[in-house]
Amino acid sequence: MNILSIVWDVSPYIHQFSETYALRWYGVLFALAFVLSYYVLAYQFNKENLPESLLNKISIACIIGGVCFSRIGHCLFYEPAYYLNNPLEFLHIWKGGMSSHGGAIGVLLAYLVISTKKYPYGLILSRTLLVVPLAGVFFRMGNLMNSEIYGTATNLPWGFVFVNSSEVLRGVETAIPRHPTQIYEALCYLALFIVFVIYCGRKNKRNEALSNTFIIGLFSLVTFGSRFLIEFLKLPQVAFEQGLTLNMGQILSIPFIITGIILLWIHHKEKAGLQ
Questions:
Q1: At 82, is the pLDDT very low, low, confident or very high (cuts 50, 70, 90)?
Q2: Three-state SS letters, the chain
Q3: Which of 81, 105, 139, 237 counts the highest number of beta carbons within 10 A?
Q4: Average confidence (pLDDT) over 59-73
Q5: pTM
């Protein structure tokens, strides 16, 4: 074993009340993600004189669409045969299994319902995406606390030995240093959130409108582009991915990456036309 590696033996539980019920780090971090995102977005809404009622609608739509479709997406994208044959298993969220791509699709659909002529789809989506990277940091830290969604073996000094991984505990995998891909993704999301904070700060100071096209385009390219690259370091989530050149996460990321490139190109052309 690499002597410079980090042995990650943190318990996923903050407190375990019984064999059935426990307070998990993932659940607390998940809740904190929504709470902090709400207050950060409320600050931006106040700067733009957008109503709190719109923020509340966005929050409800995001929770319903994002959480529900995250679960549905995981079941259908990664293990469709099993879940279609066992439909009640869709509801067993305590067993794990959430898909960020499914959540993204769910939010996109939910916003179609609440968008209006006064508050169009682009405005609602772009403002939400300002804080999604912040939430993503908390989600990936939750994965780290659960010792899940990690990477392949590495000799790098920051490799993590996930001794509490379910695969290690079941004897399926060996406890060796692996890429902490949860941290890699969290750092990418944090960097994007900082860029958005700086961008909004400058626009607010100059009393200029935010560009929906720029925000959506940059989010799509950076978030799913980094996800696409980091997936090369991840272990397959399900067996069928082992024979694929690109895994399911990468395949699902491609449309979002292309969308991001197109939107940033459109933003560049629009900006050049105003000069």
A1: confident
A2: CCCCCEEECCCCEEEECCCCCEEEHHHHHHHHHHHHHHHHHHHHHHHCCCCHHHHHHHHHHHHHHHHHHHHHHHHHHHCHHHHHHCHHHHHCHHHCCCCHHHHHHHHHHHHHHHCCCCCCHHHHHHHHHCCHHHHHHHHHHHHHHCCCCCECECCCCCCEEECCCHHHHCCCCCCCCECCHHHHHHHHHHHHHHHHHHHHHHHHHCCCCCCHHHHHHHHHHHHHHHHHHHHHHECCCCHHHHHCCCCHHHHHHHHHHHHHHHHHHHHHHHHHHHC
A3: 139
A4: 81
A5: 0.86
